[in-house]
TrEMBL record:
<dbReference type="Pfam" id="PF02245">
    <property type="entry name" value="Pur_DNA_glyco"/>
</dbReference>
<comment type="subunit">
    <text>Binds MBD1. Binds SSBP1.</text>
</comment>
<keyword id="KW-0234">DNA repair</keyword>
<dbReference type="InterPro" id="IPR003180">
    <property type="entry name" value="MPG"/>
</dbReference>
<dbReference type="InterPro" id="IPR011034">
    <property type="entry name" value="Formyl_transferase-like_C_sf"/>
</dbReference>
<dbReference type="GO" id="GO:0003905">
    <property type="term" value="F:alkylbase DNA N-glycosylase activity"/>
</dbReference>
<dbReference type="GO" id="GO:0006284">
    <property type="term" value="P:base-excision repair"/>
</dbReference>
<feature type="region of interest" description="Disordered">
    <location>
        <begin position="1"/>
        <end position="31"/>
    </location>
</feature>
<comment type="function">
    <text>Hydrolysis of the deoxyribose N-glycosidic bond to excise 3-methyladenine, and 7-methylguanine from the damaged DNA polymer formed by alkylation lesions.</text>
</comment>
<comment type="similarity">
    <text>Belongs to the DNA glycosylase MPG family.</text>
</comment>
<dbReference type="GO" id="GO:0003677">
    <property type="term" value="F:DNA binding"/>
</dbReference>
<protein>
    <recommendedName>
        <fullName>DNA-3-methyladenine glycosylase</fullName>
        <ecNumber>3.2.2.21</ecNumber>
    </recommendedName>
</protein>
<keyword id="KW-0378">Hydrolase</keyword>
<keyword id="KW-0227">DNA damage</keyword>
<dbReference type="InterPro" id="IPR036995">
    <property type="entry name" value="MPG_sf"/>
</dbReference>
<feature type="compositionally biased region" description="Polar residues">
    <location>
        <begin position="12"/>
        <end position="22"/>
    </location>
</feature>
Amino acid sequence: MTTRKRKKSLLTLPQSECASDQTDGEPLKRPSQCQSDKIAVLQHLSPYFSVRESVRLSYSFFNQPCEDLAKAFLGKVLVRKLTDGTELRGRVVETEAYLGGEDKASHSAGGKRTERNTAMFMKPGTIYVYPIYGIYLCMNVSSQGEGAAVLVRSLEPLSAQDVMRGLRAAKRKAGAKILKEKELCNGPSKLCQALDIQRCFDRRDLATDTEVWLERDPEREAVCAGEVVSAPRIGVESHGEWATKPLRFYLRGHPCVSVLNRDAERQMQSSTDLHNTEMDRTV
């Protein structure tokens, strides 16, 4: 797994209920008031956001082979709810798969189970948070397979970007330049800072936790294979043949991806062109 630091899509809002009973002594809002409130909120959001209700992903989503889960994460929305009720949202644009015992680049290589990597051996959907350099964190999610897990590498910020920027700034030197939106979550440790993912989240269940979860947007179609680049993982160069296996997946052309692999993208384009040529010949 990555051991070194590397230096709008989809949001849904809960549908306001404009009818029925008065609660907590507050007068009911008329439909026009509710609509005005929603418009006020949307003014702070990306024009690409969906306003329809999102769907939280359950255990059945996480219960799949590691490579499949790593690809399935792409396009989903990671949500972090802070103690004040603020919800930080980011769309997953890059992941890495770590396949467990056989994978020499994995923390669970050889089936080794330790106090630190216990979450990798727990049920699919279990969060595995580990430190690097003693100060940075990375977030993973367990999948099918003994000791297998997906590293969440990069997100596209979708909401509460100012809050994310403040959380990132708290970990940076005084006077550092203001981060661009695409720089807030474009790396595994960066996204943990921006979403305030803490070490205590280790071994929590992403399918049921009340402070962090994964959603899909019913208005958006699933990511198609042609959008996904497969490339070697980052920071595993010392692990022999496993260093070159294409187990990193990212959305092609997305500005929030941490590191682009031009060779993999060219190979992908060549394969697409060849496929299209063959299809033309059969017509």
